[in-house]
Design brief:
about 625 residues; alpha/beta; Spore Coat Polysaccharide Biosynthesis Protein SpsA, Chain A; Rossmann fold; 4 domains; 9-stranded mixed sheet; globular
Length: about 625
């Protein structure tokens, strides 16, 4: 029996490398004693991270398709599928997955013993061992899609009706027929492919697997969920599923699906339900963003302002001042300005960068106080209301802010956890030889010896004791010594709060997890990728806000000379809201592109412009692009 594996890649070189290693190292011996022959294809959608070169150099047996543009998931898969003619089974596999050693043989044996099985999916867990509910899915009926997009599915995750999209009422550890397979791991027969044809390329994202699964059922086959083997799906590309962009993209996929398989009358009703769900989810997402970005700062401001007023009253009473000693402008204007300056300087100096560090907040408030005192000394005598109140109020602002942050940390409020003084300690689990090799790798990347612990005992109770004793926040499993099934079992048994898990494949010089990659090259690239630093992110956002406000203020003058008048105000408001940035780059939509700065380059140099922009970013580049295109805002 022969299996054809198709992997579509886009800028995830290290995930792809680990995926290929697991695929090529998987067991090949079937239950009947025969061997499973595996043919692997990688379709690269114009990656700029060296993915194609890595495949050519490290995996010469892998068939490589190099696209010069991002042609999308469906089309890239079809490019490879159309060239696999002799395989009995076909598999669509995401690059950010790791298959168990027994995954292929388990699936092939199952399909051999179940001739009615046209498509097959397996149990998936994320990079920390948590079960992924998209491993099994139901048919996307109007109500199922509504409950999913609206978010109601999270309130009733095991309801037969409300959680129908993820078949939440079914046991995730039981083999069973399902409606929809997940595109991260979708196996089907060659005869199915020849019967129903290639993937529908009209879908952009999230819909190809739903459509193909439905076509398998229409052709008279069944789709099965097989939890007797499991894979890791890092989901490293991580679309923000609470964002409006995700909901809107999902809606577009459902709209295509509805137009294909529903009558016009039912399609209208379905569309209405989806629109309601979209606006409901968008409203919830907006409220959540407001809560995360504004509620805590407003609470800090309110605490600081209340303290200033209380101190003013006590100071008046202590000195015997009359109630009207301080004018109304002091409490309505001056005090709020004091607080806003203290908080603003703290933000600009990184005091609110996550994870929160109390020392940075204290530093920011201290700098803000020095600026306030300098400004205070320049004021006229009649505007110097009280230097002592300024000092006392600033001290209260600092103490109340620190107290609030400590309270949020103690309550485990998401996104407001304080940085640990021991943060960065790593525990390596594996043989003595492998743990020593990985320890040397981490030391070469800048870690210090006291920050690294090793153990050769993979017992979960022992690992948990070491985590607690050493206050470690990272665990690296040696892939040469521990198989994937064992690693997944360990992750499921170990704590999930505050600990991240990584795997280092056999004979590799890197370790990889959901949000982390440790490798010499990755360290080098991080140093070059200056735009990703918190300081530059803050500077870019401040520049965007300032110039967008200025463009709106000057709109009576600038609007009439614009070449694209219809988009002027939309772009300004989009930048203000954070949906756009003036100069876009990978993962961020922009009004302009980095190519607007690097003019006069040859066409073959254009694909590297974005990477060059990210590596050499400064606010001056954005300013230069704005000035060059001031009549195209």
């Amino acid at each position: 029996m022969k299996l054809g594996v198709v992997i579509v890649n886009y800028n995830v070189k290290y995930y792809l490398k680990q995926c290929l290693q697991s695929v090529l190292g998987a067991n090949r011996r079937l239950a009947d004693g025969s061997s499973l022959e595996v043919e692997v294809w990688v379709a690269d959608n114009d990656s700029i991270d060296g993915s194609s070169a890595m495949v050519r150099q490290c995996y010469p047996s892998v068939h490589l398709i190099e696209n010069h543009t991002n042609v999308g998931f469906a089309r890239a898969n079809n490019q490879a599928l159309s060239q696999i003619e002799e395989a009995d089974l076909l598999l669509l596999l995401n690059p950010d997955t790791v298959v168990s050693a027994d995954t292929f043989v388990c699936c092939a044996d199952f399909m051999q013993s179940h001739p009615d099985c046209g498509g097959l999916g397996v149990k998936m867990v994320d990079g920390n061992g948590h079960y992924l509910k998209e491993s099994k899915r139901g048919f996307p009926t109007p109500s199922a899609a509504f409950f999913k997009i609206s978010g109601l599915i999270h309130l009733f995750p095991h309801s037969h009706r409300i959680a129908a999209y993820y078949l939440g009422h079914l046991d995730p550890d039981t083999v069973q027929p399902i409606d929809i397979l997940c595109g991260a791991f979708m196996m089907f027969r060659q005869e199915v492919y020849r019967t129903i044809g290639p993937l529908d390329e009209s879908y952009f994202m999230y819909g190809e697997d739903i459509d193909y699964s439905h076509r398998i059922l229409q052709a008279g086959y069944r789709n099965y969920y097989l939890p007797t083997t499991s894979i890791i799906h890092y989901k490293g590309e991580s679309t923000r599923k609470g964002s409006f962009n995700y909901v809107y993209t999902f809606y577009n996929a459902m709209a295509i699906f509805v137009s294909k398989y529903y009558t016009a009358r039912r399609a209208k009703a379905y569309s209405l339900l989806l629109h309601i769900a979209i606006w409901l989810r968008a409203t919830l997402a907006w409220v959540e963003r407001i809560a995360n970005r504004i509620v805590i700062p407003l609470l800090e401001f309110a605490l600081a302002y209340s303290g200033f007023l209380l101190l003013k009253t006590l100071w008046q009473h202590f000195n015997g001042f009359p109630p009207t000693y301080y004018p109304e402008v002091y409490t309505t204007l001056i005090v709020p300005l004091y607080i806003l300056l203290l908080m603003g300087v703290t933000w600009l100096t990184g005091g609110y960068d996550r994870p929160i560090r109390l020392g940075r907040i204290a530093r920011g408030m201290g700098i803000g106080l020095l600026l306030l005192l300098a400004f205070y000394s320049l004021l006229d005598e009649d505007m110097r209301y009280s230097r002592m109140l300024l000092l006392l109020g600033s001290t209260w602002t600092l103490l109340s802010t620190l107290a609030l942050r400590l309270l949020l940390h103690r309550l485990h409020v998401k996104g407001h956890t304080l940085a640990s003084s021991n943060q960065g300690r790593t525990l390596i689990v594996g043989s003595a030889e492998e743990t020593s090799r990985l320890q040397a790798l981490l030391l070469s990347l800048g870690s210090s010896a006291p920050d690294i612990e090793t153990t050769t005992d993979p017992n979960p109770a022992h690992i948990q004791s070491l985590l607690r004793l050493n206050h470690a926040d990272k665990v690296i499993f040696c892939g040469r010594d521990l198989n994937l099934r064992h690693i997944i079992e360990l992750m499921a048994a170990l704590p999930t709060r505050g600990v991240s898990y990584l795997i280092s494949p056999a004979d590799s010089d890197y370790a990889i997890g959901t949000d982390s990659i440790y490798s010499p090259e990755h360290l080098y690239l991080e140093e070059l990728d200056t735009i990703s630093t918190l300081a530059n992110q803050r500077a870019k956002r401040t520049f965007d806000l300032t110039t967008a406000l200025l463009a709106l203020l000057l709109s009576p003058l600038l609007f009439w000379v614009q070449r694209r008048k219809r988009t002027y105000f939309g772009h300004c408001l989009g930048v203000l809201s954070g949906e756009l940035t003036w100069v876009g780059y990978t993962g961020h939509r922009g009004v302009f592109t980095p190519a607007d700065h690097y003019r006069g380059l040859a066409p073959d140099q254009l694909p590297n412009i974005t990477l060059r922009y990210m590596r050499n970013y400064s606010v001056s580049i954005d300013l230069n692009i704005i000035l060059r295109n001031w009549n195209n805002l």
